[in-house]
Amino acid sequence: MSELIEDCAQLPVVLIHPEHPLPVPRDAAPWQVDERCAHQVEGLAEYGV
Q1: Is 22 left (phi over 0), alpha (psi -120 to 50) or beta?
Q2: Structure confidence at residue 30 (pLDDT)
Q3: Residue 45 and residue 32: Cα distance in Å, rounded?
Q4: Which terminal residue of the chain, N or C, has fewer Cβ atoms less than 10 Å from its own Cβ?
Q5: Which are the contacts of 36, defined by CB distance < 8 A and separation ≥ 6?
Q6: 3-state DSSP call for residue 9?
Q7: Helices (H), 1-49
Q8: What is the pLDDT of residue 1?
Q9: DSSP state of 1
Q10: For residues 49 and 46, what is the distance between their CA atoms, to the nearest angstrom?
Q11: Dist. CA 38–CA 40, nearest whole Å
Q12: Domain-by-domain residue ranges, the chain?
């Protein structure tokens, strides 16, 4: 926990200053798993993945 607090203390002011809010996140583009992609992970269940 102390590491996380230390890391957050090192954030640039532009990211945490209320006068300069971050832009609103964009919606992710829709995607689908095609056969080629599914084929890449075929058999991984046998390895416990």
Answers
A1: beta
A2: 92
A3: 20
A4: N
A5: none
A6: helix
A7: 2-9, 13-16, 35-40
A8: 84
A9: -
A10: 7
A11: 5
A12: 6-47
Distance, in Å, from the CA atom of 14 to the CA atom of 34, rounded to the nearest integer, reads: 40
Paired tokens of 13 = 């002011």
Angle at 5 between CA 14 and CA 20, to 5 degrees: 15
22 and 15 in contact (C-beta within 8 Å)?
A: yes
Q: Which residue reads 């890449």 in tokens?
A: 40
- The CA radius of gyration of the chain, in Å to the nearest whole number, is 20
| Amino acid at position 42, single letter | E
